[in-house]
Backbone:
């Protein structure tokens, strides 16, 4: 193999990588805020303003859960489905509806109460 041929092969290989780099050098994914509309836009704005969970969909540790101090469930509607993991070893979730104005007791004894939250 001649020196010229080796240099040509290296040149071809070397040209491929910079060409790809050049294609993507000035491009990136668009900012989701620019494309979002409606509810998605309001969700992104709420997250941007400091509320990391605007729909209160993260898992929350239960509190005492007594009738006087129930677990508070935020909702912008009149009712919401709540899942209670009654025991930490439990393999299933006990799902139930919690309605506004009517605290609900789970089978394990913990109470849940719906509190009103402004819609985003
Ligand atoms: Zn429970």
Residues:
């Amino acid at each position: 193999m001649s020196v010229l041929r080796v240099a040509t092969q290296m040149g071809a290989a070397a040209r491929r990588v910079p060409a790809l780099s050049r294609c993507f050098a000035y491009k990136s994914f668009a900012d989701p805020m620019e494309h979002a509309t409606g509810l998605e836009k309001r969700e992104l704005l709420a997250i941007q303003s400091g509320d990391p969970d605007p729909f209160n969909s993260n898992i929350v540790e239960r509190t005492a859960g007594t009738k006087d101090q129930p677990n508070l469930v935020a909702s912008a509607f009149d009712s919401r489905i709540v899942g209670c993991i009654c025991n930490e070893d439990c393999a299933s979730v006990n799902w139930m509806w919690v309605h506004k104005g009517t605290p609900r007791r789970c089978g394990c004894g913990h109470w849940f109460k719906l509190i009103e939250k402004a819609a985003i």
Notes: Residues 3-25 form the longest helix (23 residues). The chain has two domains: 3-47, 61-116.
